[in-house]
Design brief:
This protein is mainly alpha-helical. Helices cover 62% and strands 5% of the residues.
C-alpha cells in the first residue's frame, strides 16, 4: 500500500528504511513508494505476533506528530492505545505491511523513545519476532518459528497445569467419595445389625400376638355362645312385653272410649241444662217485658205534663222552637239521666266499635246489653239499643231487664230506626241519643232530642 498524501516526513540519512536514491522536488522520496516486504507475510504470521505488531504500531501512532501519521490511520490517532489496537488492528497491520515508510517511522519512534524495548534481540520471543518482522531482519522467519514454538509450549504448559489441576480436583473428589463410601458401609453394617435386632424383636412380638390371637378366638367363641343365649332370652322377653303392650293398648282404647262417652254425656247434659236455663230466662224476660210495658203505659198515663197542651203552650203570638242539645261530659249525662220519663236511645255498633272493637260482633252486643241493663237498674231509665240487622245470622240478643234490643230490617239502616224512634216519642218527652255519628246527631237534635258522644256513655257505663 503506497502513501500519496505528501505529508510524511522523509527518513533521515542512514535510516535502514531509506534507499539510496534522489528525492523529487515535491519533498517526497522515491523510497516512499510501496515496496514488498522481505520478511514473511503478515497474514501468515502467528496470531500472537500479529497482535504484538498491532500494539507496537498503535503505541507509535498515538505519539507521532499528526503529519507523520498516514491518512488512513489519522482517525485512529485520537483513540487510546488499547482501543486503537482493538478497533484499528486490521488497518494498522495493512499499513505496516504495505508502507515501508510507515514501518520505518514506527521503528524510529521505538528506537528514539523506548530504545532496546522493541528489538529483534528482546528477551520476550514474541517481541523479538515482531521486531524482526518489522525491521525485515533476515532471521525473522526463525524468530517467528521460535515464537510459535514458545507459544505452543506456553499453551501446552497451560494445558498441563489445567490437567494437573483437574487431576488434583478429581483426587480430592475420589478421596471424598471413598470417605463417603466408608461411611455408607458403616451405616449399612449398623443398619443391618439394627435390622437383625428388630427382626428378632418382631418375631417375639408375632409369637406373643399369636398366643393372644388364639386366646381372643377362644374368648370370641365363648362370647358368641353367650350372646346367642342372651339373644334368645331377649327375644322371649320382647314377645312377652309385646303381648303385655297389646293388652295395655286394648285396655287403654277401652278406657278412651269410655272417657269419650262420658265427655259426650257431660256435654249433652250441659247443653240440656243450658237450653233449659235459656228457656227459663226467655219466659222470665217475656214476663218482665210484659210487666214493664204495663208499668210504662201506666206511667205515661199518670205522668205529669202528659196529655194535652199546657197553658204556656197556648199563649198567643208565640211559637216554640224544638231542638235538643249535646251532653259532652259524664256530669251532663248524669243530669239528663235524672230527668223523669227519660228515654235513652243507643246507636249499638257505634258505641261498641268505639269501646271494644277487638271483640266479635255477637260479644260486642252481649257486653253492651249487660252494661245498659246495669245502668237501667240504677237509674230506672227506659233504654233502647239499635243494631244493624243486615249481618245478623244468629238469633238476636235477648233484651235484658229495662233494655230494649232492636235490629233493623234488611235494607234498613240502624240510623233510620233511631230517627224513627225519636220521631215516635210524644212532644215534650225527654229523649237522649248516644252516638258519635254527626249525621244522626244533627237529625235527632233537630227533632228535639239530646245527644251524647259514644265515649261519654262508655265512661258512664264503666262506673255502673
Amino acid at each position: 500500500m503506497s502513501d500519496t498524501s505528501g505529508d510524511r516526513r522523509p527518513p533521515a540519512a542512514g535510516d535502514p528504511a531509506r534507499p539510496d536514491g534522489p528525492c523529487v522536488t515535491d519533498g517526497s522520496c522515491a523510497a516512499d513508494d510501496p515496496a514488498p516486504s522481505t520478511g514473511p507475510s503478515y497474514v501468515s504470521l502467528p496470531e500472537p505476533v500479529r497482535s504484538r505488531l498491532a500494539e507496537a504500531a498503535s503505541v507509535a501512532v498515538g505519539a507521532m506528530p499528526g503529519d507523520d501519521v498516514p491518512v488512513p490511520l489519522r482517525r485512529l490517532a485520537r483513540f487510546t492505545p488499547a482501543k486503537r489496537s482493538r478497533l484499528g488492528r486490521a488497518a494498522l497491520l495493512a499499513e505496516m505491511e504495505g508502507s515501508v515508510a510507515f514501518r520505518a517511522s514506527v521503528v524510529a519512534w521505538w528506537e528514539e523513545h523506548r530504545p532496546g524495548e522493541f528489538t529483534p534481540s528482546a528477551a520476550d520471543p514474541l517481541v523479538a519476532a515482531a521486531a524482526a518482522v518489522l525491521v525485515a531482519d533476515p532471521r525473522a522467519a526463525d524468530a517467528v518459528a521460535l515464537a510459535a514454538r514458545r507459544g505452543e509450549a506456553v499453551e501446552l504448559r497451560a494445558e498441563r497445569d489445567e490437567a494437573l489441576a483437574r487431576v488434583d480436583k478429581l483426587t480430592s473428589e475420589l478421596e471424598r467419595l471413598r470417605a463417603e463410601l466408608a461411611d455408607a458401609r458403616d451405616a449399612a453394617r449398623f443398619a443391618g445389625q439394627e435390622r437383625d435386632a428388630e427382626y428378632q424383636q418382631l418375631r417375639r412380638r408375632v409369637s406373643d400376638q399369636g398366643a393372644r390371637l388364639r386366646a381372643a378366638d377362644d374368648g370370641r367363641a365363648e362370647a358368641e355362645q353367650r350372646l346367642e343365649e342372651l339373644r334368645l332370652s331377649a327375644e322371649a322377653d320382647r314377645r312377652a312385653v309385646a303381648a303385655e303392650r297389646d293388652r295395655e293398648r286394648t285396655r287403654a282404647e277401652a278406657e278412651r272410649r269410655r272417657a269419650a262417652d262420658a265427655v259426650a254425656e257431660v256435654a249433652a247434659a250441659r247443653q240440656a241444662a243450658r237450653e233449659a236455663r235459656q228457656s227459663d230466662e226467655v219466659r222470665l224476660g217475656l214476663l218482665l217485658d210484659t210487666v214493664g210495658g204495663a208499668l210504662a203505659g201506666l206511667r205515661r198515663e199518670l205522668a205529669l205534663g202528659g196529655g194535652g197542651p199546657r197553658p204556656g203552650d197556648l199563649v198567643a203570638g208565640a211559637r216554640s222552637v224544638r231542638g235538643g242539645g249535646a251532653a259532652d261530659s259524664v256530669m251532663a249525662l248524669d243530669a239528663l239521666l235524672s230527668v223523669p220519663s227519660l228515654h235513652l236511645v243507643v246507636d249499638g255498633y257505634n258505641v261498641t266499635k268505639t269501646g271494644y272493637p277487638e271483640l266479635p260482633l255477637a260479644d260486642q252486643r252481649t257486653r253492651l246489653a249487660g252494661q245498659l241493663a246495669a245502668l237501667a237498674a240504677r237509674t230506672s231509665v227506659e233504654i233502647t239499643v239499635v243494631f244493624d240487622g243486615a249481618g245478623v245470622v244468629a238469633a238476636p240478643t235477648r233484651g235484658s231487664r229495662g233494655v230494649r234490643v232492636l235490629f233493623s230490617d234488611p235494607g234498613v239502616l240502624a240510623d233510620d230506626v233511631i230517627r224513627a224512634l225519636v220521631a215516635a216519642e210524644p212532644q215534650g218527652r225527654p229523649v237522649v241519643v248516644a252516638t258519635s255519628d254527626k249525621a244522626v246527631v244533627t237529625s235527632v237534635c233537630a227533632q228535639g232530642a239530646h245527644s251524647v258522644p259514644s265515649r261519654v256513655l262508655l265512661q258512664r257505663l264503666a262506673r255502673s
